[in-house]
Write a structure and sequence with these properties.
- The structure is a single chain.
- This protein is an alpha/beta fold.
- Helices cover 47% and strands 19% of the residues.
- The strands form 5 sheets. Strands 4-3-5-6 form a 4-stranded parallel β-sheet. The protein has a 3-stranded mixed β-sheet with strand order 1-2-9, with helices on one face. A two-stranded antiparallel sheet has the order 7-8.
- Helix 6 runs antiparallel to helix 7 and helix 11 packs antiparallel against helix 12.
- The longest helix has 21 residues.
- The chain binds nicotinamide-adenine-dinucleotide and zinc ion.
- Nicotinamide-adenine-dinucleotide (NAD) binds next to helix 2, helix 4, helix 5 and helix 6.
- The site of nicotinamide-adenine-dinucleotide has 29 residues, from helix 2, helix 4, helix 5 and helix 6.
- It catalyses: 7-phospho-2-dehydro-3-deoxy-D-arabino-heptonate = 3-dehydroquinate + phosphate.
- Its main location: cytoplasm.
- Catalyzes the conversion of 3-deoxy-D-arabino-heptulosonate 7-phosphate (DAHP) to dehydroquinate (DHQ).
- It is found in: Cytoplasm.
C-alpha cells in the first residue's frame, strides 16, 4: 500500500487491489475492526457491489447498515446528508463507528462530509469505484456537498483512515465515465510529470482495455502526485492550486452547459484552452500543444464545444471562486509536465484560449 501523511506523523494507506477480499485485513491493520459500520453508496453501485462488500466486512464489523441514495450529482446536497444523519442515529452509530464510502466521487464527498460532521466527526474510509474517484477525489481530504447551483459550497477537510481501491470495479464503469477519469489523469501528468504523461499516451490501448498492471501503475502514480501536493499544501494556500489546471475555464464551460457535459470532459476542454494560452506565451511548443490535443482525443475526450459564446465563458471564468482580489489565479503549462500559478493572465489571453475551444 502507498502511505500518505495525514497530520504530522500520522499516515494512512492507499491499497490498489484486484478484488474486495483484502478489505477486512486492511481494516484490521488500521485497528478499525469490531465497530458499528455504515456503508454509504448510491443506487448504481449498491446492486453491483454492496452485497459483496457487506459479506467481506461481516467478520470485522460488530454491525453493518447500508445507506443508499439516488445516484448522481443532484443528490450531493444537504437533504441527502440529513437523511444520512437520520440513518446513523437510528442505527446507533457513535463516536467509535465507521462510515464506508462505496462509490464514485459523489458518494465519497457526501459520505466524507457526513463523517466529518456527525457527532463532530467520526472515522471514515474510502472505497472509490470510479476512475475519477480513484485518481483524484478519494485522496486529499476534501469533502462536501453542493448548495443549490453552487458546487462544493459547503464542506470540510476530513481525511479518510484508509483508501481501498478494487480496480476490477472499473470493469462495470460506463466508457464515458472512464474517459472522465482519464481527463484528470492527463491533467495530473501535465502538472508535474511529463514522462508519466508520455507513458499514459503511449499505453493508451492497454489502458483502455483495463490492463490491471498498467492501471495500477497509472492510478498509483496519480495518487502519489496528488498526495504529495496535498501533503505540502493541505489547505490550498499555494501549490495545491496547481491541481486546478484546466479547471478554471473547464468549470465555466461545465456551468454554462448546464452540467450536460461531464466534469472530466469539461476538464479536457479546459486543458486545451490553458494549453493554447501557454502556447501563445511561448511556454509550449506547437508540437507539445498538439500532443495535448492528441492525448485528449485518444481517450475519447472532447477538445471543443459548440453553441457557447466566448464572452459568456469569459464572464463565467471570472466569477470562479478561485479569484483572489479580482485577480484570476490561472494555472499555465511550461512544457509537458511543468505548471505554475500565474496572476497576470489578461482577458485578451483568456479570450484567445476560449476561441480555441469553440466551433
Ligand atoms: P459519481 O460518483 O457520480 O459517479 C459517476 C457515475 O458512475 C454515477 O452514476 C455512479 O453511480 C456510477 N458508478 C460509480 N461506480 C461505478 C462502477 N464501478 N460501475 C458502474 N457505475 C458506477 O461521479 P465521479 O465522477 O466519480 O465523481 C464526481 C464528483 O467528485 C463530483 O461531485 C466532484 O465535485 C467530486 N470531486 C471531488 C474531489 C475532491 O477532492 N473531494 C475531486 C474531484 C471531484
Ligand atoms: Zn476535476
Amino acid at each position: 500500500a502507498l502511505q500518505v501523511r495525514r497530520n504530522g506523523d500520522f499516515y494512512y494507506p492507499i491499497y490498489f487491489e484486484d478484488g474486495f477480499e483484502k478489505l477486512a485485513d486492511a481494516i484490521r491493520t488500521e485497528g478499525l475492526e469490531n465497530r458499528n459500520f455504515c456503508i454509504v453508496t448510491d443506487t448504481n453501485v449498491a446492486p453491483l457491489y454492496a452485497a459483496e462488500v457487506q459479506k467481506v466486512l461481516s467478520p470485522v464489523a460488530s454491525k453493518i447498515s447500508v445507506f443508499t441514495f439516488e445516484a448522481g450529482e443532484k443528490s450531493k446536497n444537504l437533504n441527502t446528508v440529513q437523511q444520512l444523519y437520520k440513518v446513523l442515529i437510528e442505527e446507533k452509530l457513535d463516536r467509535k463507528s465507521l462510515i464506508i464510502a462505496l462509490g464514485g466521487g459523489v458518494v465519497g464527498d457526501l459520505a466524507g462530509f457526513g463523517a466529518a460532521t456527525y457527532l463532530r466527526g467520526i472515522d471514515f474510509i474510502q472505497v472509490p469505484t470510479t476512475l475519477l474517484s480513484q485518481v483524484d477525489s478519494s485522496v486529499g481530504g476534501k469533502t462536501g456537498v453542493d448548495l443549490e447551483q453552487y458546487k462544493n459550497m459547503v464542506g470540510a477537510f476530513h481525511q479518510p483512515r484508509l483508501v481501498y481501491m478494487n480496480l476490477h470495479t472499473l470493469r462495470s464503469l460506463p466508457a464515458e465515465q472512464f474517459a472522465c477519469g482519464m481527463g484528470e489523469v492527463l491533467k495530473t501528468g501535465l502538472i508535474c510529470d511529463g514522462d508519466f504523461y508520455q507513458f499514459v499516451c503511449a499505453e493508451q490501448e492497454k489502458i483502455q482495455q483495463l490492463d490491471t498492471a498498467l492501471l495500477k501503475k497509472m492510478i498509483r502514480r496519480c495518487c502519489e502526485i496528488k498526495a504529495g501536493v496535498v501533503e505540502r499544501d493541505p489547505k490550498e494556500q499555494g501549490e495545491r492550486a496547481l491541481l486546478n489546471l484546466g479547471h478554471t475555464i473547464g468549470h465555466a464551460v461545465e456551468k454554462l452547459m448546464d452540467f450536460k457535459l461531464l466534469h472530466g470532459q469539461c476538464v479536457a476542454i479546459g486543458l486545451i484552452a490553458a494549453a493554447k494560452i501557454s502556447l501563445n506565451r511561448g511556454l509550449l511548443t506547437e508540437k507539445e500543444y498538439q500532443q495535448i490535443i492528441q492525448g485528449c482525443e485518444s481517450y475519447r475526450l472532447p477538445t471543443y464545444i459548440e453553441g457557447l459564446h466566448a464572452g459568456d465563458i469569459l464572464a463565467a471564468t471570472k466569477k470562479d471562486k478561485k479569484m483572489e482580489q479580482g485577480q484570476i489565479k490561472f494555472v499555465l503549462m511550461k512544457g509537458l509536465g511543468g505548471s505554475f500559478i500565474d496572476r497576470t493572465v489578461t482577458d485578451q489571453e483568456l479570450l484567445e484560449g476560449i476561441q480555441e475551444i469553440l466551433r
